[in-house]
Design a protein that fits this description.
Helices cover about 30% and strands about 25% of the residues. With about 240 residues, it is an alpha+beta fold. A hairpin with a 2-residue loop joins strand 3 (about 45-60) and strand 4 (about 60-65). About 30% of the residues are buried.
């Protein structure tokens, strides 16, 4: 059993980043981020400023959820989502599994020819960190626009097969990384749940000893303005 002292991460093993959604216009005239999907993690948006929306595509269809300050919106794995920036949209993002959505659990909606193997996908989505920021932005915009091409095709597809094919391709792309993801889950969300279980067991027996092990932690972002999938990110250690 996991000791209560072994998990000291954020509650429930979520992770946090601060997001300023891209204001780059796309070919459809809409400003915003890169459409993508998570395979094992839910994600939540807490809107802190500005105005916009999140477009989503699932087997239930296409939806648009308005985002204004105070909105909390969240979605489960399998939801293709595209953030739209209408006026300086800023969001605090809550990510399941210690930030796995920004650390690997994401597949961009590239056209099918870019989803055939991990090398082809990586070449189309990588943003080099050893080049000037203006070049990083160019790479980020290029991959955003490529993902929008595939996203439009999925939205316009007649019948469910195109979306099902994307799901299959995404699952195949991430399969080599599942052992790494499982270990992240064990150290994080599983450990957090086990710690709560142990605390409940102790209290049931009249043992309040774990309360003497209390700790307080705080940290500032470890990086500011990182080019993410949806916008510029302020990220914390481990994300």
């Amino acid at each position: 059993m996991v000791s209560t002292g072994e998990f000291t991460g954020l509650p429930g093993s979520v992770a946090v980043s601060h997001l300023s959604v891209y204001d780059w216009p796309a070919v459809d005239g809409v400003c915003g981020g890169t459409p993508h999907m998570h395979l094992t993690c839910s994600e939540a948006y807490v809107v802190t400023g500005g105005r916009g929306a999140v477009q989503t595509l699932t087997t239930s269809g296409y939806e648009v959820t308005p985002l204004v300050p105070g909105t909390v919106a969240w979605f489960t794995p399998g939801t293709i989502h595209r953030l739209v920036n209408e006026d300086d949209l800023r969001i605090t993002v809550l990510m399941q599994n210690s930030g796995l959505p920004e650390a690997g659990d994401a597949v961009l909606t590239l056209p099918p020819q870019y989803l055939t193997d991990a090398e082809t996908y990586a070449a189309a989505t990588r943003i080099p960190t050893d080049v000037p920021e203006v070049e990083q932005e160019r790479f980020a915009r290029t991959r955003r626009d490529l993902a929008l091409e595939g996203y439009r095709a999925l939205r316009e597809a007649d019948g469910p097969e195109a979306l099902a094919a994307f799901h299959r391709a995404a699952a195949a792309l991430v399969r080599p990384r599942l052992a790494e993801w499982r270990e992240r889950w064990r150290r994080g969300a599983e450990a957090a749940a086990a710690a709560t279980g142990e605390q409940l067991d102790r209290l049931e027996k009249g043992d309040a000893g774990h309360l003497a092990e209390a700790v307080v932690r705080a940290e500032l972002p470890s990086a500011y303005g990182k080019f993410g999938m949806c916008g510029r990110l302020d990220v914390y250690r481990g994300e």
